[in-house]
Design goal:
alpha/beta, D-Maltodextrin-Binding Protein, domain 2, three-stranded parallel sheet, 14 helices, globular
Length: 415
């Protein structure tokens, strides 16, 4: 009898243990380092919701979702760049292998044409159905039928200005000419990347940014050289601090980032120049060298989910090509709380004259890079001259002061 009771107790304990283990298996368990896969994501700075200011940390949300969905631990290693050209240099060097990158349209085209991107398997990206028709298929002008890319966010370039530093009645407001207004010498910021900087000059001059001749490229260079004497600096991410704290008055930059700056400085205003401007789409791609293609495709799919897509649109203020965002009433209300016309600035842009950058031919890329180096070396030489002059003047002051002191000392000795 005792044996029977013992067996029954053991059976009950074993059954209870099995239930307990089954229940625990549904909870996220710590994994050994060897069991954790790392997904390397390379994106623009300030371009993904990261958990700050009560926003959703979308990378952490992906890690949790992935474990719940597939029972595997994934760690997202997230790093940023400040220009398409920086991204291109890093990808083509092969120094670091990334799994997901977010280049702009013309850079998608260039990386695709040069064999640096992997084709996507849309069986792993079913949320592609939420991308609006105007951003896929034949409408994906930089990657027909989205073979290599999935639209992430989009926008246009415009001019930001500080209403306390720029006369609201200035006739240059509304035009690219404000970027060349000598009344604001030392208070103007220009792009620190070749395509966008030359774009500002080409749009101002009425030159086609994609088919410009070598003579027209040089014409744009001369205009940029003329501007360099009144420019405070060539910037990318540094623009946030400079415009938010009033260190500069005028800058050309991306519309979504303007709203980020406006949130921290309500004296800032923005417009799309009447001569025309750049329209761009930033898209998620997988480099051909990626060793985690399946996880990368699932990551892209997660970013198209309503939770992640709305969080990213709210965090960046950029326009979303995702219908789950565009038709989301809470999102519309959120945008209007940031600025009354914020939603219209990003989405209702039908009357704006805009063109997209195309990947330049090899000879035009050589021309662009050469002219950019010429402009920047001119800038560096100019700064060098000022520094040399400053050193010489300082040296003369020191020599004069030393001479004066010695003269006085000699005079005292003879008295």
């Amino acid at each position: 009898m005792k044996k029977l009771i013992s067996l029954l107790i053991c059976g009950i304990l074993l059954f209870a243990s099995a239930i307990s283990l089954s229940s625990c298996s549904k909870e996220k368990q710590p994994a050994a380092k060897s069991d954790i896969k790392t997904l390397y994501v390379y994106n623009w700075g300030e371009y993904m919701s990261d958990g700050s200011d009560d926003s959703l940390d979308v990378n952490k949300a992906f890690e949790d979702w992935y474990y719940e969905e597939y029972g595997e631990h994934v760690n997202v290693n997230y790093s940023t760049y400040s220009s398409n050209e920086d991204l291109y240099a890093k990808i083509t060097s092969g120094a670091v292998v990334y799994d997901v990158i977010v280049p702009s349209d013309y850079m998608v085209q260039r990386l695709k044409d040069e064999g640096y991107l992997a084709p996507l398997n849309y069986e792993n990206i079913p949320n592609m159905e939420h991308i609006l028709p105007e951003f896929k298929g034949d409408n994906a002008y930089y990657d027909k039928n989205n073979v290599y890319s999935v639209p992430y966010l989009y926008g246009m370039v415009g001019i930001i200005y500080n209403t306390t530093m720029v006369d609201p009645n200035d006739p240059d407001i509304g035009s690219w000419s404000l970027m060349w207004d000598e009344d604001y010498k030392g208070n103007i910021l220009q792009f620190n990347n070749s395509r966008d900087a030359f774009g500002t000059a080409q749009y101002y001059l009425g030159i086609d940014v994609n088919t410009a001749t070598e003579a027209e490229w040089r014409q744009a260079l001369e205009l940029l050289k003329k501007q360099k004497n009144i420019v405070q600096g060539y910037v990318m991410d540094e623009i946030y601090n400079k415009m938010e704290n009033g260190s500069a008055a005028i800058a050309a930059y991306y519309a979504g980032d303007y709203l980020t700056m406006y949130e921290n400085n309500s004296d800032l205003e923005f417009y799309y120049p009447k001569e025309g401007t750049n329209f761009y789409v930033d898209a998620m791609c997988i480099p051909a060298a990626s060793e985690n293609k399946l996880i990368a495709e699932r990551y892209i799919n997660f970013m198209l989910s309503e939770e992640a897509a709305v969080a990213n649109a709210e965090y960046t203020y950029y326009a979303s090509p995702n219908e789950l965002v565009v038709n989301n009433e809470e999102y519309m209300e959120y945008m209007s709380e940031i600025k009354e016309d914020a939603y219209d600035k990003m989405y209702n842009t039908d009357g704006i004259k805009a063109t997209a950058y195309e990947n330049l031919t090899e000879d035009k890329l050589v021309t662009l890079n050469s002219l950019w180096e010429e402009l920047k070396s001119d800038v560096d030489i100019g700064i060098g001259i000022y520094i040399c002059c400053g050193v010489i003047i300082l040296g003369l002051i020191v020599l004069f002061a030393t001479y004066t002191v010695k003269k006085r000392m000699k005079k005292k000795m003879y008295e």
